[in-house]
Each structure stands twice: as C-alpha cells, then as structure tokens.
Amino acid sequence: MKTILSMRLICQGQTKATIRRELDSDMVPFLGLKIEHDHESEIQSVCYNIEENYYYVTLSPEDHFETQEELDMQIQCYKEYGWTVLGE
After folding, report:
1. Does residue 35 contact residue 28 with C-beta atoms inside 8 Å?
2. Are 15 and 68 in contact (CB under 8 A)?
3. 76 CB contacts (<8 Å, ≥6 apart)?
C-alpha cells in the first residue's frame, strides 16, 4: 500500500523545511512506531485516505541543526534517498 512519510526539519527553533517520501509497503503504521532511515523517527500521527487508499504518516521533527549549512547538507542526503522538499 502507498505510504507517504512527512517530516519537518527545524533549525534554531524554526521549521525551515518539510520533507516527504512516498513508498509502497505492507506496513500498517501506528503511533509510537519508530521508522529507521538516516536516524530513527517516531510516528506522531497517521491518517488513512480511504478514497485514494494510502496512509499519510507524520514523523517526529528532526531538530538538531545549529546552522543553515548543516540543514542544507542533511537535506541533500535525504534527497539522495528519495525524499523531496515540499515547495521545491
């Protein structure tokens, strides 16, 4: 089933980007489940769209970035693994 993962990236206390990744998976997401990608992220919310048959999963934000440069480097890494930045 199609699953859309979404995660906010926070730098100096402010959301600077939201990234997402679409994948096909047999997983049924639930609150508290940890998703391992570059690091572990916990599922904060799950919405199932019955009309289009997909899960929309919000992951805990990644917030350890001290500078914009650190954030930009991490975004580039995410892009290499199939994540996209909303608004680009």
Report:
1. no
2. no
3. none
DSSP assignment of 33-50 equals: PEEESSSEEEEEEEEEET
Contact between 36 and 27 (Cβ < 8 Å): no
Query: What does each of the 88 residues of the chain score in pLDDT, given as a tens digit?
Result: 999 999 999 998 889 999 999 999 999 999 999 998 777 899 999 999 999 999 999 999 988 888 999 999 999 999 999 999 998 7
- Beta strand residue intervals within the chain, DSSP E: 2-11, 14-24, 34-36, 40-49, 54-59, 62-65, 84-85
- The amino acid at 78: Y
How many residues belong to the chain? 88
pTM beyond 0.85, yes or no: yes
Q: Which of 19, 24, 57, 54 is nearest to 38 (CA)?
A: 19
